[in-house]
Amino acid sequence: MSTIVVVKKNSETVIGADTLTTYGNTKESAEYVVNHEKLFKFQDNFLGISGSASLGIAVEDFLSKSSKKISFESVAKIFRFGLVLHKELKENYFLRPDDEEDFETFRGDILIANQKGIFGLSAYRYVQEYTRFYASGSGSQYAIGAMFAVYNSGKTAEEIAKLGVQAGVEFDDGSGLPITLHKINIK
């Protein structure tokens, strides 16, 4: 349960997220949890992961100790990362197979912001590069609507991302304050 957004406008990209963790009916807010961030930096990239909280920890751990050269600068390179990540999650992080699906998923989505643009890696390893904005998580529909409504206004990428996450927090019971934002200037 999350609201994670990416926005690209003019010469900047922004990634933003809420900070609430939920387990069933239990809410764990940033006020009570030190490691409440849903965004993390890897090299010159920011990643936001929706899905199980343990997925975020596993991805961050994998990236921190990987000896492989990992790049998030294109759809093809992100796809290859998704293949390596899925294999690693199965072999070393106890990801169980999906018996009911044609393709196994890693049960979460990853949004990526960097100097090359904004990207999404779905649980099925489908990769998209976005031209303006996107959102993932349980609050994504609210975030996308809010960002669509203001994108062509005079607002900056940072302001649009903040409004997107705020909409998710306002209407989705799986998202909560405070909001985290990271801005990257496009080269």
Task: Describe the protein.
With 187 residues, the protein is α+β, with helices and mostly antiparallel strands. The protein has a single domain, classed as 4-Layer Sandwich (Glutamine Phosphoribosylpyrophosphate, subunit 1, domain 1). Helices cover 30% and strands 29% of the residues. The protein is built from four helices and eleven strands; from the N terminus they run ββββββααββββααβ. A five-stranded antiparallel sheet has the order 5-6-7-8-9. Strands 10-1-2-11 form a four-stranded antiparallel sheet, covered by helices on one side. It is globular. The mean pLDDT is 93.
Quick recap:
With 187 residues, the protein is an alpha+beta fold. The protein has 4 helices and 11 strands. It has a 5-stranded antiparallel sheet.
Relevant CATH superfamily: Aminohydrolase, N-terminal nucleophile (Ntn) domain
> Tell me about the biggest sheet?
5 strands, antiparallel
Detail the poorly predicted runs: none
Q: What's the Cα radius of gyration?
A: 16 Å
Secondary structure: number of strands: 11
Would you list the SSEs in sequence order as H and E? EEEEEEHHEEEEHHE
Q: Order of strands across the biggest sheet? A: 5-6-7-8-9
Class of secondary structure makeup: alpha+beta
Looking at the chains present, what oligomeric state does this protein adopt?
single chain
Query: Residue share in helices?
Result: 25-40%
Q: What integer is the average pLDDT?
A: 93
